[in-house]
Design brief:
This protein has 216 residues and is an alpha/beta fold. It has a single domain (2-49, 71-212), classed as Rossmann fold (3-Layer(aba) Sandwich), CATH 3.40.50.2020. 31% of the residues lie in helices and 35% in strands.
Length: 216
Amino acid sequence: MVINLGKSNSLFNQFISEIRDQTIQTDSMRFRRNLERVGEIFAYEISKKMEYIKTEVSTPLGIAKMEVLKDQPVIASILRAGLPLHHGVLNYFDRSENAFISAYRKYRKDGTFQIKFEHISCPPINDKEIILVDPMMATGASMVLAYKAMLQKGTPKHTHIVSIIASKEGIEHLQNNLVGKNVTIWAGAIDDELTVKSYIVPGLGDAGDLAFGGKE
């Protein structure tokens, strides 16, 4: 299942607009905060798909019957660009365990690249819900690699893959490579094009650099 939150008009699209805007992007603190706010909205929408249990809460005046989350999800992100988005999701699922995956593009001299996986820090995930986040999903290769890396830690009950801006090609890559998996793909916007270097067009640029500064 693919859920594109940007198809419905809401304040969510205001944040996406600011994340894309090259003038607003010059303020790295605002850029990070917008990634975080988008993460909070994703968390709220994902929470509607999760399992709840009945409970009773003692108030100063009596007992309130409530329904609360049965279990907290594990929140995972691909370093480093995923950190502000991760933090936004964690703001709402604030008792969640967390996982971090190190993966990056290793470029060849001809301009092509391969996705390299280095390390994963992850709790056991057997029969848990996973929220795996990365702000950009271009080819989808790093997301598939990250998902498969997490399977080393167990078999999740359900995985929510979250990307603020995805390409159609990236979405199709996930669908083709995660056939039969219990996965929902969440996007804030789905763009049509990739450049020859696999950057999303119109996209927003390099989310990691905009959030944390350039790198060598």
